[in-house]
Each structure stands twice: as structure tokens, then as C-alpha cells.
Amino acid sequence: MTELTHDGTRRTVETPKGTLHYHEAGEGPPLLLLHGSGPGVSGWANYRDNLPVFAEHFRTLVLDFPGFGKSHSCEGNPMAAALPAVLDFLSALSLDAVPVVGNSMGGNIAAQLAARHPERVSRLVTIGGVGLPVFSPSPPEGIKLLVQFVEDPTRARLMAWMESMVYDTALLTEEFVEMRWRAASDPAALADIRKLFNAGSLAAMRDRGPGAVAQVELLTSIRAPTLVAFGRDDRVTPLDSLLVPMRLIPKCEVHVFPDCGHWAMIERKDEFESVVLSFLLRDLK
């Protein structure tokens, strides 16, 4: 397949709340990929290496949430703006039910979309981002390091956070780190990420009660066939978090990637693509 570049695949669409930026490649049934949160993140940063493989089978759409990448900024918490933006995006492109793959925050938003708007999601794949830590302490290490970076955004603190995201730190090449640092140190990007990760968000994570109730309600409302994927060595959403969605989502299956942190789509690229494509293509054969 022809090499897919950032500029060659980038698109924009106007919505009532502002311009949404996304990448598009491939033909066939649509597939929506939703990225995670964190300094310097974007749809391209999360899925650029997976895009060619998914584009062989799907019209693959990689969205930047408001406050991330090149989509419009948002006045409040980017988490609150994300689900309405996805709905606006699907409507702007005249898309009905689509399979959705989401990493971390993207998995959480994809799960919300499936639970609250079941007519919009035909199949759901989450990579971390859903569930409740049953045995692990909260907040987890990765989130604490993320907040430390947000409070004092140095390259060293960014590197410490990124090392918590992976099992094998050799993946953090100079090119990859520099890409994330350039994006993460942008003043506008920092302003948006501070709305999401701060001392208040850490305090909310320590108080598990309200979040646990909301998560159980969310998971039991999902009706789409669901694949819950986790890295065995995830230090952001620990592995024991998968026990709750595995039991509560009616049509749920689970895959655990060994020697893998929070970024399964990057760290276990080939296996991730094989597992997810097998799940997504099941209905299409």
C-alpha cells in the first residue's frame, strides 16, 4: 500500500462547536479510531502506524478530540467535550452505526457512545480506559506522573511519564519523543491538558465511590459486541480493571497483551492489529 503521510491523510470538518481535525484512509465500511489523553497526544500520534493496516479493510477515520491535535480548543474539561464532538463528527459525515476502537480516554468515550447512543456503535474495542481497579491503588502511577508533567512541563518529566506508558522503553525513540515534546510543550495544548489532569482530578480518582457507580451503570448499558484489550503491564489502567467490564458487558471478550503497557497499538502493533481485525471482520465475512 502507498505510504500514508500525515498531510496526505489529514481532513477537517466543520461542526456547530468548531473545526474537527481527522485523518482518513482506505475504502469500504467506516471505522472510527479514538485516541487517548496525555501530553502531545493526537489521533496521528496514537494510530499512525496502524492506519495502513486498517485502511486495507475499512474507510478508517482517526479523529482528534477537541483540545487535542489540530481540532478546536474547548472552554471546559476536554473529557466533557469529547462525546458531543464524536456525535457531531458522525453526523457531519452522515455516518450511522460504526465500529469504534478507543485507547484510554478514547476507550472511555467509545464506551459512553455505545452505552448512551447504541444506534451509533456496531462493535466496540477498548484498549484500557474502561473498568475499575479491583486490587490496585488509585490514582495509578502513570496518572501521577502525567500530573507532575502538567504542573512542571519539562522534557525530563515528559520522558518519565512516557516511560510509565510502555513495557519496553526502547520504543521511545528520539523521533517519537521529539514529536510528543513539540506537541506537548505548545502553550495552547498545555492549557487544554491542564483542564483534564490536575490536583483535583487526582483527588477525584482517590474517591472511588461516585466513579464506581457511574462505571457500573455505563458498562451494563453496552449492548454492542465488545473486545476489551489490556496490556498486562499497564501502569495507567491496571490489568485488574478488566474484571469488572468482563463480567458486566453482556457481549464481552477479553485479550491481554503480554510484555505490554498502556499503548498496545504501538507496543504490540502486529498482534494488536491481528486481534482487532479478527474481531471487527467477524460480521463482514
From TrEMBL:
What Pfam family does this protein match (any one)? Abhydrolase_1
Q: Which domain of life is it from?
A: Bacteria
Write out the biased-composition intervals (Basic and acidic residues). Answer: 1-14
InterPro entries recorded for this chain? AB_hydrolase_1 (IPR000073), AB_hydrolase_fold (IPR029058), Epox_hydrolase-like (IPR000639)
Q: Does the keyword Hydrolase apply?
A: yes
Query: Per UniProt, what is one GO molecular function of this protein?
Result: hydrolase activity
**Record-annotated AB hydrolase-1 domain positions:** 29-268
**Alphabetical keyword list:** Hydrolase
Q: Write out the ranges of the annotated region (Disordered).
A: 1-24
Quote the PANTHER family the UniProt record gives.
Answer: ALPHA/BETA-HYDROLASES SUPERFAMILY PROTEIN (PTHR46438), LIPASE-RELATED (PTHR46438:SF11)
In its UniProt entry, what is this protein called?
2-hydroxy-6-oxonona-2,4-dienedioate hydrolase
Instruction: Give the classification, highest ranks.
Output: Bacteria, Bacillati, Actinomycetota, Actinomycetes, Streptosporangiales
